[in-house]
Amino acid sequence: MATRFLPCPELPDQLGGGRSFKKKHEENKMCAFDLLAIVAGNLLLDKESAPSSSNTTADKNQCAAVNSNVKYEWQDEEKPLKVEACDHGSAARNFFVCGPSQVHGQGCSSKEPLVAQNNLNLRLASALTKSDWAGRSDAEKLGNDKSKNDMGTFARKVEGVSSEYREFGDCILEVETKRAVKDEPGRFGMVLGSNVANACSLEDPVVLDAKPPALASLDSSAKVPLCRNHIPNSSYPTNRDDVNVVSRDDDENSGCSHPITKKKFFRPAPRIGNRRIRKIMASKYWKVAPRFKDGTVSNPDGDLKPVFRKRKNYYRQQRSERLYPFKKRKHYAYSSPSNSYGGMSCNGDASGSCSRMHGVTGASSSFVAQHTSLQPRDSHGMRTFNGGASSSFVGQRTSFQPRDCHVKLRIKSFRVPELLVEIPESSTVGSLKRTVMEAVTAILGGGLRVGVLLQGKKVRDDNKTLLQTGISHNNQLDSLGFCLEPNPSRTPPSLCPGDSPFLLQCDTPEPLSRCPPTADVVCQGICTGSPEPHVNNLGNYIESDHDSASSPADTSMDKSTNSKALVAVPAMNVEALAVVPAHRNSKQSEIVQRRIRRPFSVAEVEALVQAVEKLGTGRWRDVKLRAFDNAKHRTYVDLKDKWKTLVHTARISPQQRRGEPVPQELLDRVLTTHAYWSQQQASQQLKPQQQAETCLLL
DNA sequence: GTTAGGG
DNA sequence: CCCTAAC
User: Fold this and answer.
1) Cβ(A525)–Cβ(A87) under 8 Å?
2) Are the CB atoms for A423 and A85 separated by under 8 Å?
3) Nucleotide nearest to A596 (CA to C1')
4) What is the pLDDT of residue A89?
5) DSSP bridge partners of A527
6) Under DSSP, is residue A162 helix (H, G, I), strand (E, B) or coil?
7) Where are the beta strands (DSSP E) in A374-435?
8) Which nucleotide is nearest to A621 (CA to C1')?
9) Per-residue DSSP letters for A423-460?
10) What is the residue range of the signal peptide feature (predicted)?
11) Which nt has its C1' nearest the CA of A622?
């Protein structure tokens, strides 16, 4: 189980590395870490360029879309950076900028089904100032024998999570990697504070999540109780009002005990108004494979695979992958696992009568304070952890209280409903950030309400008691969830309509829950234009889908065998990442973004017609395979639908037709073909009937 | 997982 | 393009 930590590739220039990102990219050497770093870099830049100054960095950035829907390129004159943002699937990474100053990112791509073992999740767990770093003991750093402050080589592995420290500009980033679970994307957040200046004090409850490398174990013997009534705001120079105190160990011995003796230093985040903001990037879909030397190796083709589904046949995948950024959300109310936690801890008195769910006091104030002040923003919550079996609720009540039992629960985090942000490709990164910020601000401004889910079902009756509802039972707490929903009266415009609750998000497993309690994350897909597929008429081969045309980053990520940033995490307890509650009802999970509309080109129509002529209607899968095999974004359902509309189009007058005109010749063939195969089908149906009649006659 | 059909 | 029933 030895984790192999390979040297990291150089970071982009901006990040203090040698080679420029672009260069790396060209060499296909970019690794996931680089992406993380880059995103982080943008965040940092964003911070720096933030409010007042017309920061040049941001201004210089250029956002160039490639093929209109896949990549955004941020370029600085000297330090080319690139982060891809794509709206869907096949081979691209998807970055979502979320939350107030948070980035929620995810990368995924796929050409082939996943090989779960090869998927790693990354998360940027923390960002420290250099001074913070220097202040750490070696053990705190990584507890190994590496040279003291050599961030690049420090690495540790805890509970299946490998951590690595990297120097990044003026701060130190901690990146965690963890293998994804089969069929289940891990949930990692990438969190970094944004202010270098103010490191959390040692008392900072916020960073409790950090398990110092050396101490990283579940052994609670080392735990040092935290001041549970710590009031963040008063304690720090930085006025953090959203500090969450999380008692992560689920043991009930102490209300706010925490296994960790040491806190992590997070850079104080930038604030918006009075809020501290965290930037978060979740990269749970990232797979970083080829970095392992032993055993686990990514697919030969080096594609990144989405982890969220099982491989069946490639076909299925085709459909799945296009659903990417959005569909998967449906199934995993994912999101950076513990972007924020709210801690609701009990006083820990053994009597079992826990303090009530504190409102705004003590350790638990974090949650309340945070969410009340900002409006609940993040929805997710349920999480499984602690050996992979619990939920975000650590709640439980002692069994024998005669009456008036209190339900203890802890909400690990909330996730904010998705936002859909549209922004011209020509926009600058800076404007993108502003746009996101606005959207986030809007949604956090009161357009939310809290929903309660039990066993995946919404509890609508507000008048029921917890007892009546069943929430008071221990076994129910595991299936208790909260979600944020658009407030009917105040639904932000940018919010997708619908009442879909945003399911509580599962959280990272214990070992991973080191994300500081951040503000919540609002995810937003970056919708870009649609590429026009082009048809290679040879053999009806349609080669469209730019997305699948292995995005550079995609390949690079996987081929970056040479790069050394990522850490392979050998087999581990996968359950730890299986954070999605079984009861999750995907239907109510989240709002699902509609795929972008991608009108069929004439060439595609041609190919379709030709295939249908050959295969007939009713064999859409075959049609797909035959003529659209490489058009990842065209599913057989799409083809079927297109045929349907073609038939319709052919039947209406040209004046009534819309869109790119389809040559009449093609439409004629459509009608002919349709008529022919309809007849075939009819006769096929007649046969058995005739046979039956024959039988009867006999 | 596919297919068919309504929305 | 989505959703779902039916298989």
Assistant:
1) yes
2) no
3) C1
4) 27
5) A422
6) strand
7) 415-422
8) B2
9) --TTS-HHHHHHHHHHHHHHHHTT-EEEEEEETTEE--
10) none
11) B2
CA–CA separation, A522 and A496 (whole Å): 13
Alpha helices in A95-172, H assignment, sequence order: 130-135, 138-141
Say which nucleotide is closest to residue A597, CA to C1' distance: C1
Contacts of A468 (CB under 8 A, 6+ apart): none
Look at residue A126 and give its three-state secondary structure.
strand
Three-state secondary-structure class, residue A264? coil
Cα of A471 vs its chain's centroid, Å = 29
Residue A636 has pLDDT above 90, yes or no: yes
Q: Which of A34-38, A434-438, A521-525, A686-690 has the highest mean pLDDT?
A: A434-438
Q: What is the pTM of this model?
A: 0.28
In this structure, are residues A42 and A82 in contact, taking their beta carbons and an 8 Å threshold? no
CB A609 within 8 A of CB A615: no
pLDDT, tens digit, 9 for 90 and up, residues A394-430:
333 333 333 456 776 767 666 555 666 667 677 777 7
Cα separation, A666 vs A676, whole angstroms: 15
pLDDT at position A639 over 90: yes
User: Chain A, 635-654: which CBs lie within 7 Å of strand C?
Assistant: 637-638, 641-642, 644-645
Proximity of residue A585 CB to strand C below 7 A: no
Asked whether residue A594, judged by its CB, lies under 7 Å from any atom of the DNA or RNA strand C, the reply is yes
**Phi (first) and psi of residue A101, to 5 degrees:** 50, 25
Distance, Å, A341 CA → B7 C1' = 40
Protein CA A645 to sugar C1' C1 (Å): 12
**C-alpha A511: how far from chain center:** 19
Tell me the C-alpha distance between A123 and A36, whole Å: 8
Query: What distances in angstroms separate CA A112 from CA A170, A295, A314, A320, A421, one per listed residue?
Result: 39, 19, 7, 11, 29
